[in-house]
């Protein structure tokens, strides 16, 4: 490898095991996040790569590559390895062996397709998911950057309208959300609104108006009595004895604990954010991802890559939860260049390694378009990226 000044970003053409060893001198302890998308070992051979190794051969290929990542990782860094169920068990054992079971962050299920087409006629359950195994180098030092996901429509649990949220809680009055929305639409009742508009149209209007007026929309939830503090227990007891009153417990550094008839009052407004210009419910990210579409990505980035091409939004979520702007990101199985393209658009520094000819035919042209501001696909609009930066190509 040629001796160069520290590159802004690095595209390496060669065997990733050799490359990882050579990178150690310059990048030891610098990589904040590794995203791995290794061969899934499906038993098939594609134009760009062979995906039909024997299991033991696949394990023998993966183990030294995982071990080579350890010295490159920052002490607070993490590895995210995507796989399907063909080699899930073997990869889990390898990750436990190399990084330690105590450093496992999560096993994330990614729903990538629907139960349609030829898959649905297979014997047994239809396979629709991939898995991301997330491990920290040192879980005690790793920091999660909290993420949220958008929920479609309206949470039906929020079925109550609060007329006067700006009034003192003692004067609050409540009524059915459906009744309140029907009146806003000029109807005497929800039944009259459904008769005039149809149930589907009324429900859509209800969801839109509830989100637009989220500070008026609430739900009542029974608190877990044994899990709350003594002060909260006392106010719940008092509320049960005085069910018509709204009682408030102020808490330093936390939102007030508000109860009526022994039930906590939760506000829809606490869950609503403006997403792409519209109000929507956002919820904490779980370890089941159903909201990252794989459909329609065939030409994302201006490249067509057979089988296992990943959406830019999927990689962006991983980088958002594990890195900050300016951090180094590494992908030793770069494929068509998705991880590098996403990292570039998110203002992360990146290293991508690929041994196949498609580094020159797919990944490098794709990244050149990203730098030139000629790629409007993927996360370009969301990040506001319009071009800039550079990368160095290195041949091993």
What does it look like?
The chain is of the alpha/beta class. The chain has 2 domains: 10-147 and 286-395, Rossmann fold (3-Layer(aba) Sandwich); 151-284, no CATH class. The chain contains 11 helices and 20 strands. Helix 5 (190-197) packs across helix 6. The chain is elongated, with a radius of gyration of 26 Å.
Keywords:
single chain, 396 residues, Rossmann fold, six-stranded antiparallel β-sheet, elongated
List the helices and strands and how they pair.
Elements: E1 10-13, H1 16-27, E2 31-36, E3 44-45, E4 50-51, H2 55-69, E5 73-83, H3 88-99, E6 104-111, E7 129-136, E8 148-151, E9 160-162, E10 174-176, H4 177-184, H5 190-197, H6 199-212, E11 217-221, H7 230-241, E12 246-251, E13 254-260, E14 263-267, E15 272-275, E16 278-284, E17 288-289, H8 312-322, E18 328-331, H9 338-345, E19 349-354, H10 358-372, H11 380-383, E20 392-395
Parallel strand pairs: 1-19, 1-20, 2-5, 2-18, 6-17, 18-19
Antiparallel strand pairs: 3-4, 5-7, 6-7, 8-16, 9-10, 9-11, 11-14, 12-13, 13-14, 15-16
Helix pairs in contact: 1-2, 2-3, 4-5, 4-6, 5-6, 8-9, 9-10
Low-confidence stretches: none
Which topology of the largest domain does CATH recognise?
A: Rossmann fold
Shape: elongated
* Overall tally of structural domains: 2
> Which radius of gyration do the C-alpha atoms yield?
26 Å
Provide the helix percentage. 25-40%
Mean pLDDT: 91
Count of DSSP H/I helices? 11
Find the count of extended strands (DSSP E, 2+ residues): 20
Strand percentage lies at 25-35%
